[in-house]
């Protein structure tokens, strides 16, 4: 496959224009390739849900045995109804979070020539800078720039991460390691909320994949015509997201888009396709998207966690019986990567390809 050795074709490189470059040029209209069909455009009247209406789980309550059942119940209800919740008092210091956001800001402020050293249109590349989702195949482009890098075990990958800005590896590395610890705790809590042993798949979780997607959504002259990322669910088990300001929207059970407020110090937890499958459909991978705005540059850091690249995952056997037949076939992270390399994300969800037709 072209670009499989870490490069990219000169033709795709020539087609590349980052969203940040367009914003810095001061374009007054988004180019036609960013304009979504009317039915897919964000509705400026989208219902805004105050933070009190979206689930917030206080993990410090786990230290009190009498409060632990409440936390498990809150996670169960949030996972069933939305596939989404926010966590506070999660144990990651503010300084680690702030330094990670500083590293993201400094990276995207680099000259384009520096960022292009990491450019690739090959979706399997372990470290990749790009724009949109995959600008070569996207029929409509999305108003975001990103750098993605494999992150666990960090010792295998950190030497490939950006060397500029000079503090990027240290700041983002500290955040990545802290998030991986939190993810293991959250996976245990989600499994417990399903009635499984909290240590279910413990080794697979420990040895799973972690991909960090660091995103920049520049100010956009016509935010009503485009999106930063289109509606989708994540492929993995959990995604832990940090956002600098509002822009994330999640789809609720009534198919309404709900804006997620940025709460100081909170981290967003999104369930992905693997968790939907492991729960045999009890929990849902949350469908979400990123909007853009005219005034602010928005950054987000998404830590995407999944089982190992080739590990096949299916419904937990304990959650399958006559009343609850197996609703999904097994799949792996590799299967998902193969799917997105061949398909337009707007034309169908990967998880629909592994669902069983149950009468």
Automatic annotation (TrEMBL):
Keywords assigned: Iron, Metal-binding, Oxidoreductase, Vitamin C
Start and end residues of each Fe2OG dioxygenase domain: 207-307
Gene3D superfamilies: B-lactam Antibiotic, Isopenicillin N Synthase, Chain (2.60.120.330)
Domain of life: Eukaryota
Pfam hit, one: 2OG-FeII_Oxy
Cross-referenced InterPro entries: DIOX_N (IPR026992), IPNS-like_FE2OG_OXY (IPR044861), IPNS-like_sf (IPR027443), Oxoglu/Fe-dep_dioxygenase_dom (IPR005123), Plant_2OG-oxidoreductases (IPR050295)
The keyword Oxidoreductase appears for this protein: yes
Keyword 4Fe-4S appears in the UniProt entry: no
Family of the protein in this entry: Belongs to the iron/ascorbate-dependent oxidoreductase family.
Protein name: Flavanone 3-dioxygenase 3-like
Designated gene of the protein: LOC132803792
């Amino acid at each position: 496959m072209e670009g499989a050795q870490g490069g990219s074709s000169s033709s795709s490189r020539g087609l590349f224009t980052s969203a940040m470059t367009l914003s810095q040029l001061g374009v007054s209209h988004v180019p036609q390739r960013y304009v979504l069909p009317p039915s897919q455009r964000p509705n400026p009247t989208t219902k805004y849900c105050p933070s009190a209406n979206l689930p917030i789980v206080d993990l410090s309550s786990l230290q009190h045995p009498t409060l632990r059942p409440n936390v498990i119940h809150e996670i169960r209800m949030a996972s069933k109804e939305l596939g989404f919740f926010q966590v506070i008092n999660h144990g990651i210091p503010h300084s680690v979070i702030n330094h990670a956001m500083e590293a993201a800001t400094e990276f995207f402020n680099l000259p384009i020539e520096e960022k292009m050293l990491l450019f690739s249109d090959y979706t399997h590349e372990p470290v990749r800078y790009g724009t949109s989702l995959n600008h070569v195949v996207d029929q409509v482009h999305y108003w975001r720039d990103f750098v993605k890098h494999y992150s666990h075990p960090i010792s295998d990958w950190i030497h490939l991460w950006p060397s500029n800005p000079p503090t990027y590896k240290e700041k983002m590395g500290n955040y990545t390691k802290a998030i991986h610890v939190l993810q293991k705790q959250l996976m245990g809590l989600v499994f417990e909320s399903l009635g499984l042993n909290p240590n279910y798949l413990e080794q697979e979780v420990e040895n799973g994949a972690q991909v960090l997607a660091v995103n920049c959504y520049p100010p956009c002259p016509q935010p009503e015509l485009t999106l930063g990322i289109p509606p989708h669910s994540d492929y993995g088990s959990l995604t832990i997201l940090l956002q600098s300001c509002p822009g994330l929207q999640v789809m609720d059970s009534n198919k309404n888009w709900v804006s997620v407020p940025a709460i100081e110090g909170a981290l967003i937890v999104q369930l992905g396709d693997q968790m939907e499958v492991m729960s045999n459909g009890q929990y849902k991978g949350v469908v979400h998207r990123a909007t853009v705005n005219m005034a602010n540059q928005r950054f987000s850091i998404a830590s995407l966690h999944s089982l190992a690249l080739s590990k096949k995952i299916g419904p937990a056997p304990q959650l399958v019986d006559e009343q609850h037949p197996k609703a999904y076939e097994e799949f792996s992270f590799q299967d998902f990567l193969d799917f997105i390399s061949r398909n337009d994300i707007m034309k169908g969800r990967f998880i629909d390809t592994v669902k069983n037709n149950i009468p």
